Amino acid sequence: TAYLNDNYPAAIELYTKALSYGDYGLFYNGRSEAYFYWGDSGKALPDIERAIELRPMTEDYYVHRAMIYYYNGDVRQAVSDLSIAQGIRPDDGGTLWGREHILEKIVKEAHSFYQDKNYQKAVEQYELVLTVGASKYYDLYYWQGLAYMNMGDYTHAAEKLQIAADVFPNN
After folding, report:
1. Cα–Cα distance between 170 and 3 in angstroms, integer?
2. Distances (CA, A) of 92 to 60, 72, 73, 89
3. Rounded to 5 degrees, what are φ and ψ at 5?
4. Is 136 helix (H, G, I), strand (E, B) or coil?
5. What's the count of helices (H) and strands (E) in the chain, helices before strands?
6. For 10-56, what is each residue's pLDDT tens digit?
7. Is residue 99 a contact partner of residue 78, using CB atoms and an 8 Å limit?
8. In Å, how far from its chain's centre is CA 121?
9. pTM to 2 decimals?
10. Is 115 in contact with 86 (CB distance < 8 Å)?
């Protein structure tokens, strides 16, 4: 209940005590989450990495690590972990929620880059999202096309805008 009541120091202490009884991925994951939500991603990362070593087919662990990477600014690694999680259990509710949560943040960042006329960075962020969630984010092909056009790269602009038109022909 310490974790559920947002008493992260108590949760960390309880998970640390639980780990004294054995090396379990679930306990490392729990302690990692407590560290993360307490604001200490530096301690959260080694714990979730140990959880993944112990239970490499647990998709929730990859989603959690993706969140840590994302909030530490390593967007590429976050997207990589989301892809791994999706490959393990593509229809899992927690995996989908975590994936969508992070992808929505990346899309907002990409749009901010576009608004600031940092078109290259926008294109890179759009591409990251499309590698994981292309079916939902088809409109990003359109935004990529516009960004390429603004950079004067008309070949890539035409390619991306054609994909957007093929995927969503009525717009």
Report:
1. 48
2. 9, 25, 25, 6
3. -95, 15
4. coil
5. 9, 0
6. 999 999 999 999 999 999 999 999 999 999 999 999 999 999 999 99
7. no
8. 17
9. 0.75
10. no
